[in-house]
Amino acid sequence: MKQFTYYAIALLMCLQACRSDQSKTDESETAIKLVSPDFNADSAFVYTKAQVDFGPRIPSTAAHTKCLEYLFQKLKSFGADVAVQEGPAQTFDGKKHTLKNIIAQFSPEKTSRVMVTAHWDARPFSDQDPDVNMKNKPFDAANDGASGVAIILEMARQIQQKNPEVGVDFILWDIEDYGKPNDESINETTWCIGSQYWAKNRNTKAHRPLPLYAINLDMVGGGNAQFTQDEISRKYATPIVNKIWDIGNEIGYGAYFINVPSGNLIDDHFWVNQAGIPCVDIIHYADQSGFYINWHTQLDNLNNIDRNTLKAVGQTVLETIYREKEISR
Ligand SMILES: [Zn+2]
Q1: pLDDT tens-digit profile of 240-251?
Q2: How close is the Cα of 115 to the center of ligand 1, in Å?
Q3: Which domain holds residue 108?
Q4: Is the pLDDT of residue 157 over 50?
Q5: What is the Cβ-side half-sphere exposure of residue 244, based on CA atoms within 13 angstroms?
Q6: Same-domain check for residues 280 and 146
Protein backbone atom coordinates (compact mmCIF):
# COMPACT_ATOMS: atom_id res chain seq x y z
CA MET A 1 0.00 0.00 0.00
CA LYS A 2 2.76 2.39 1.00
CA GLN A 3 4.86 1.50 -1.98
CA PHE A 4 1.91 1.91 -4.26
CA THR A 5 1.34 5.37 -2.82
CA TYR A 6 5.01 6.18 -3.32
CA TYR A 7 4.98 5.08 -6.93
CA ALA A 8 1.72 6.83 -7.54
CA ILE A 9 3.16 10.08 -6.16
CA ALA A 10 6.36 9.62 -8.17
CA LEU A 11 4.32 9.03 -11.31
CA LEU A 12 2.17 12.05 -10.57
CA MET A 13 5.24 14.23 -10.06
CA CYS A 14 6.71 12.98 -13.32
CA LEU A 15 3.45 13.69 -15.15
CA GLN A 16 3.26 17.15 -13.65
CA ALA A 17 6.86 17.85 -14.62
CA CYS A 18 6.18 16.72 -18.20
CA ARG A 19 3.01 18.78 -18.27
CA SER A 20 4.72 21.91 -17.00
CA ASP A 21 7.39 21.46 -19.66
CA GLN A 22 4.70 21.37 -22.26
CA SER A 23 2.77 24.33 -21.03
CA LYS A 24 4.09 27.19 -19.01
CA THR A 25 0.64 28.73 -18.76
CA ASP A 26 -0.84 25.62 -17.13
CA GLU A 27 2.01 25.54 -14.68
CA SER A 28 1.59 29.16 -13.64
CA GLU A 29 -2.17 28.65 -13.23
CA THR A 30 -1.74 25.67 -10.93
CA ALA A 31 0.96 27.50 -8.98
CA ILE A 32 -1.34 30.39 -8.02
CA LYS A 33 -1.48 30.78 -4.30
CA LEU A 34 -4.48 32.78 -3.19
CA VAL A 35 -4.50 34.56 0.15
CA SER A 36 -8.29 34.89 -0.05
CA PRO A 37 -10.88 32.20 0.71
CA ASP A 38 -12.40 30.34 -2.23
CA PHE A 39 -15.21 32.47 -3.67
CA ASN A 40 -18.19 30.19 -4.25
CA ALA A 41 -19.92 31.07 -7.53
CA ASP A 42 -22.81 28.65 -6.90
CA SER A 43 -23.55 30.51 -3.71
CA ALA A 44 -23.42 33.85 -5.56
CA PHE A 45 -25.78 32.42 -8.15
CA VAL A 46 -28.27 31.45 -5.43
CA TYR A 47 -28.12 35.02 -4.06
CA THR A 48 -28.78 36.37 -7.54
CA LYS A 49 -31.80 34.08 -7.89
CA ALA A 50 -33.13 35.03 -4.45
CA GLN A 51 -33.30 38.68 -5.53
CA VAL A 52 -34.82 37.90 -8.92
CA ASP A 53 -37.47 35.73 -7.22
CA PHE A 54 -38.90 38.82 -5.47
CA GLY A 55 -39.76 40.24 -8.91
CA PRO A 56 -38.26 43.46 -10.30
CA ARG A 57 -36.94 45.49 -7.34
CA ILE A 58 -38.38 48.76 -8.58
CA PRO A 59 -38.33 51.57 -5.98
CA SER A 60 -41.61 52.00 -4.05
CA THR A 61 -42.93 48.52 -4.92
CA ALA A 62 -43.62 45.48 -2.71
CA ALA A 63 -40.78 43.52 -4.37
CA HIS A 64 -38.37 46.32 -3.46
CA THR A 65 -39.51 46.30 0.18
CA LYS A 66 -39.27 42.51 0.45
CA CYS A 67 -35.80 42.48 -1.10
CA LEU A 68 -34.62 45.21 1.28
CA GLU A 69 -35.65 43.03 4.22
CA TYR A 70 -33.89 40.01 2.69
CA LEU A 71 -30.63 41.89 2.05
CA PHE A 72 -30.67 43.51 5.49
CA GLN A 73 -31.22 40.19 7.29
CA LYS A 74 -28.73 38.33 5.13
CA LEU A 75 -25.93 40.83 5.82
CA LYS A 76 -26.80 40.78 9.51
CA SER A 77 -26.68 36.99 9.57
CA PHE A 78 -23.14 37.20 8.19
CA GLY A 79 -22.12 39.27 11.19
CA ALA A 80 -22.01 42.75 9.68
CA ASP A 81 -23.20 45.95 11.37
CA VAL A 82 -26.05 46.90 9.07
CA ALA A 83 -27.88 50.22 8.70
CA VAL A 84 -30.21 51.72 6.15
CA GLN A 85 -29.66 55.29 5.01
CA GLU A 86 -33.01 56.74 3.99
CA GLY A 87 -33.61 59.91 2.03
CA PRO A 88 -36.24 61.65 -0.07
CA ALA A 89 -35.94 61.14 -3.80
CA GLN A 90 -37.74 62.18 -6.93
CA THR A 91 -37.25 60.40 -10.23
CA PHE A 92 -37.39 62.08 -13.66
CA ASP A 93 -41.00 60.94 -14.18
CA GLY A 94 -42.05 63.10 -11.21
CA LYS A 95 -42.60 60.16 -8.84
CA LYS A 96 -41.51 60.55 -5.23
CA HIS A 97 -39.73 57.79 -3.31
CA THR A 98 -37.87 57.14 -0.10
CA LEU A 99 -34.46 55.89 -1.17
CA LYS A 100 -32.81 53.17 0.90
CA ASN A 101 -29.06 52.64 0.74
CA ILE A 102 -28.00 49.56 2.71
CA ILE A 103 -24.71 50.02 4.56
CA ALA A 104 -22.91 46.99 6.08
CA GLN A 105 -19.65 47.19 8.00
CA PHE A 106 -17.18 44.51 9.03
CA SER A 107 -14.66 45.39 11.77
CA PRO A 108 -15.84 49.01 12.06
CA GLU A 109 -13.02 49.76 14.54
CA LYS A 110 -10.32 49.24 11.91
CA THR A 111 -8.95 52.39 10.30
CA SER A 112 -7.67 50.69 7.15
CA ARG A 113 -10.75 49.83 5.13
CA VAL A 114 -11.86 48.85 1.66
CA MET A 115 -15.34 49.62 0.38
CA VAL A 116 -17.31 47.57 -2.16
CA THR A 117 -20.60 48.75 -3.61
CA ALA A 118 -23.34 47.74 -6.08
CA HIS A 119 -26.87 48.92 -6.81
CA TRP A 120 -29.75 46.80 -5.59
CA ASP A 121 -32.66 48.50 -7.38
CA ALA A 122 -34.04 47.35 -10.74
CA ARG A 123 -34.82 49.67 -13.66
CA PRO A 124 -38.59 49.97 -14.12
CA PHE A 125 -38.56 49.58 -17.91
CA SER A 126 -36.60 47.63 -20.51
CA ASP A 127 -36.24 50.58 -22.86
CA GLN A 128 -33.35 48.96 -24.75
CA ASP A 129 -35.44 45.95 -25.72
CA PRO A 130 -35.62 45.48 -29.50
CA ASP A 131 -39.37 44.75 -29.21
CA VAL A 132 -41.24 48.07 -28.99
CA ASN A 133 -44.04 46.40 -27.00
CA MET A 134 -41.57 45.57 -24.27
CA LYS A 135 -39.92 48.95 -23.83
CA ASN A 136 -42.26 50.02 -21.02
CA LYS A 137 -42.21 46.67 -19.24
CA PRO A 138 -40.09 45.84 -16.18
CA PHE A 139 -37.45 43.13 -16.38
CA ASP A 140 -35.67 40.77 -13.98
CA ALA A 141 -32.43 42.80 -13.76
CA ALA A 142 -30.53 39.63 -12.87
CA ASN A 143 -27.26 41.07 -14.11
CA ASP A 144 -27.96 44.80 -13.90
CA GLY A 145 -28.11 45.02 -10.19
CA ALA A 146 -28.62 41.57 -8.67
CA SER A 147 -25.26 40.07 -9.78
CA GLY A 148 -23.15 42.72 -8.02
CA VAL A 149 -25.22 42.48 -4.85
CA ALA A 150 -24.94 38.67 -4.96
CA ILE A 151 -21.15 38.88 -5.15
CA ILE A 152 -21.18 41.19 -2.14
CA LEU A 153 -23.35 38.74 -0.17
CA GLU A 154 -20.98 35.87 -0.97
CA MET A 155 -17.97 38.02 0.02
CA ALA A 156 -19.72 38.88 3.29
CA ARG A 157 -20.28 35.17 3.95
CA GLN A 158 -16.59 34.48 3.38
CA ILE A 159 -15.48 37.42 5.54
CA GLN A 160 -17.53 36.09 8.45
CA GLN A 161 -15.57 32.82 8.28
CA LYS A 162 -12.13 34.37 7.87
CA ASN A 163 -11.50 38.06 8.50
CA PRO A 164 -9.18 39.98 6.20
CA GLU A 165 -6.63 42.30 7.82
CA VAL A 166 -8.56 45.39 6.79
CA GLY A 167 -12.10 46.43 7.64
CA VAL A 168 -14.69 46.18 4.88
CA ASP A 169 -17.63 48.45 4.10
CA PHE A 170 -20.34 47.33 1.73
CA ILE A 171 -22.92 49.74 0.37
CA LEU A 172 -25.88 48.65 -1.71
CA TRP A 173 -27.11 51.70 -3.62
CA ASP A 174 -30.78 52.37 -4.21
CA ILE A 175 -32.31 54.13 -7.24
CA GLU A 176 -29.24 53.88 -9.47
CA ASP A 177 -31.10 52.71 -12.53
CA TYR A 178 -34.15 54.99 -12.76
CA GLY A 179 -32.46 57.50 -15.05
CA LYS A 180 -33.98 59.36 -17.97
CA PRO A 181 -33.11 57.59 -21.23
CA ASN A 182 -30.29 59.40 -23.03
CA ASP A 183 -29.54 61.63 -20.06
CA GLU A 184 -25.78 61.85 -20.25
CA SER A 185 -25.22 64.76 -17.90
CA ILE A 186 -23.00 63.93 -14.97
CA ASN A 187 -23.51 66.50 -12.23
CA GLU A 188 -27.23 66.92 -12.87
CA THR A 189 -27.82 63.30 -13.66
CA THR A 190 -31.16 61.56 -13.15
CA TRP A 191 -29.18 58.32 -12.62
CA CYS A 192 -27.36 57.22 -9.46
CA ILE A 193 -29.78 58.93 -7.07
CA GLY A 194 -28.84 56.75 -4.07
CA SER A 195 -25.08 57.24 -4.34
CA GLN A 196 -25.56 60.95 -5.07
CA TYR A 197 -27.60 61.31 -1.91
CA TRP A 198 -24.99 59.39 0.10
CA ALA A 199 -22.13 61.53 -1.24
CA LYS A 200 -23.97 64.72 -0.26
CA ASN A 201 -25.46 63.59 3.07
CA ARG A 202 -23.19 61.12 4.71
CA ASN A 203 -22.01 61.40 8.26
CA THR A 204 -18.41 62.37 7.56
CA LYS A 205 -17.38 62.55 11.22
CA ALA A 206 -18.59 59.03 11.92
CA HIS A 207 -16.65 57.62 9.03
CA ARG A 208 -13.13 58.92 9.46
CA PRO A 209 -10.68 58.02 8.18
CA LEU A 210 -12.13 57.31 4.77
CA PRO A 211 -11.76 53.88 3.19
CA LEU A 212 -8.48 53.50 1.27
CA TYR A 213 -10.47 52.97 -1.90
CA ALA A 214 -13.74 51.63 -3.22
CA ILE A 215 -14.83 49.20 -5.91
CA ASN A 216 -18.26 49.43 -7.55
CA LEU A 217 -19.70 46.32 -9.20
CA ASP A 218 -22.26 46.67 -11.99
CA MET A 219 -23.32 43.93 -14.44
CA VAL A 220 -20.77 41.44 -13.21
CA GLY A 221 -22.55 38.18 -14.04
CA GLY A 222 -23.13 38.18 -17.80
CA GLY A 223 -21.64 35.64 -20.21
CA ASN A 224 -18.39 36.55 -22.00
CA ALA A 225 -17.99 39.62 -19.86
CA GLN A 226 -15.10 41.95 -20.46
CA PHE A 227 -14.24 44.71 -18.06
CA THR A 228 -12.49 47.69 -19.58
CA GLN A 229 -10.98 50.61 -17.68
CA ASP A 230 -13.36 53.56 -17.88
CA GLU A 231 -12.32 57.19 -17.87
CA ILE A 232 -13.58 58.12 -14.40
CA SER A 233 -11.88 55.13 -12.77
CA ARG A 234 -8.62 55.94 -14.58
CA LYS A 235 -8.87 59.63 -13.72
CA TYR A 236 -9.57 59.30 -10.00
CA ALA A 237 -8.14 55.91 -9.08
CA THR A 238 -5.36 54.92 -11.49
CA PRO A 239 -3.31 52.85 -9.00
CA ILE A 240 -6.40 50.98 -7.88
CA VAL A 241 -7.41 50.18 -11.46
CA ASN A 242 -3.90 48.80 -12.02
CA LYS A 243 -3.98 46.84 -8.78
CA ILE A 244 -7.31 45.13 -9.48
CA TRP A 245 -6.63 44.39 -13.16
CA ASP A 246 -3.15 43.06 -12.31
CA ILE A 247 -4.56 40.74 -9.64
CA GLY A 248 -7.33 39.56 -12.00
CA ASN A 249 -4.73 38.72 -14.62
CA GLU A 250 -2.38 37.12 -12.12
CA ILE A 251 -4.97 34.75 -10.68
CA GLY A 252 -6.24 33.55 -14.04
CA TYR A 253 -8.98 35.97 -15.10
CA GLY A 254 -7.15 37.91 -17.78
CA ALA A 255 -9.92 37.15 -20.27
CA TYR A 256 -12.27 39.28 -18.14
CA PHE A 257 -10.00 42.02 -16.83
CA ILE A 258 -8.66 43.39 -20.08
CA ASN A 259 -6.21 46.27 -20.16
CA VAL A 260 -8.29 48.36 -22.52
CA PRO A 261 -9.30 51.95 -21.74
CA SER A 262 -12.89 53.07 -22.31
CA GLY A 263 -14.74 56.36 -22.26
CA ASN A 264 -16.90 58.25 -19.83
CA LEU A 265 -19.51 56.21 -17.99
CA ILE A 266 -22.21 57.40 -15.65
CA ASP A 267 -22.25 55.10 -12.68
CA ASP A 268 -22.20 55.18 -8.88
CA HIS A 269 -18.41 55.28 -8.78
CA PHE A 270 -18.49 58.93 -9.92
CA TRP A 271 -20.28 59.92 -6.69
CA VAL A 272 -18.00 57.88 -4.47
CA ASN A 273 -15.07 59.68 -6.08
CA GLN A 274 -16.81 63.00 -5.38
CA ALA A 275 -16.93 61.97 -1.72
CA GLY A 276 -13.13 61.77 -1.73
CA ILE A 277 -12.75 57.99 -1.93
CA PRO A 278 -10.91 56.76 -5.04
CA CYS A 279 -13.41 54.42 -6.68
CA VAL A 280 -13.12 52.01 -9.57
CA ASP A 281 -16.02 50.64 -11.60
CA ILE A 282 -16.01 47.01 -12.63
CA ILE A 283 -18.69 47.06 -15.30
CA HIS A 284 -19.44 44.98 -18.39
CA TYR A 285 -18.79 47.65 -20.99
CA ALA A 286 -16.47 48.40 -23.91
CA ASP A 287 -16.49 51.41 -26.22
CA GLN A 288 -16.90 49.23 -29.31
CA SER A 289 -19.58 46.82 -28.11
CA GLY A 290 -21.28 49.01 -25.49
CA PHE A 291 -22.81 47.57 -22.32
CA TYR A 292 -23.65 43.92 -21.60
CA ILE A 293 -25.60 42.61 -24.58
CA ASN A 294 -28.89 42.21 -22.66
CA TRP A 295 -28.59 45.57 -20.89
CA HIS A 296 -32.05 47.03 -20.08
CA THR A 297 -33.86 44.31 -22.05
CA GLN A 298 -36.20 41.44 -21.15
CA LEU A 299 -33.27 39.06 -21.58
CA ASP A 300 -31.45 40.39 -18.53
CA ASN A 301 -32.68 37.33 -16.64
CA LEU A 302 -31.32 34.41 -14.63
CA ASN A 303 -30.82 32.23 -17.74
CA ASN A 304 -28.17 34.66 -18.89
CA ILE A 305 -26.19 34.69 -15.68
CA ASP A 306 -22.84 32.92 -16.02
CA ARG A 307 -21.26 31.49 -12.88
CA ASN A 308 -17.80 31.82 -14.46
CA THR A 309 -18.14 35.59 -14.55
CA LEU A 310 -19.40 35.72 -10.96
CA LYS A 311 -16.35 33.67 -9.98
CA ALA A 312 -13.87 35.83 -11.93
CA VAL A 313 -15.12 39.04 -10.34
CA GLY A 314 -15.80 37.67 -6.87
CA GLN A 315 -12.43 35.98 -6.54
CA THR A 316 -10.52 38.96 -7.92
CA VAL A 317 -12.18 41.45 -5.57
CA LEU A 318 -11.85 39.09 -2.60
CA GLU A 319 -8.17 38.54 -3.37
CA THR A 320 -7.66 42.31 -3.64
CA ILE A 321 -9.19 42.81 -0.19
CA TYR A 322 -7.27 39.98 1.47
CA ARG A 323 -3.95 41.24 0.14
CA GLU A 324 -4.44 44.59 1.90
CA LYS A 325 -2.45 45.11 5.10
CA GLU A 326 -3.55 47.26 7.98
CA ILE A 327 -1.51 50.46 7.94
CA SER A 328 -1.15 53.02 10.70
CA ARG A 329 -2.92 56.22 9.68
ZN1 LIG B 1 -28.72 49.61 -15.58
Answers
A1: 999 999 999 999
A2: 21
A3: 35-322
A4: yes
A5: 33
A6: yes
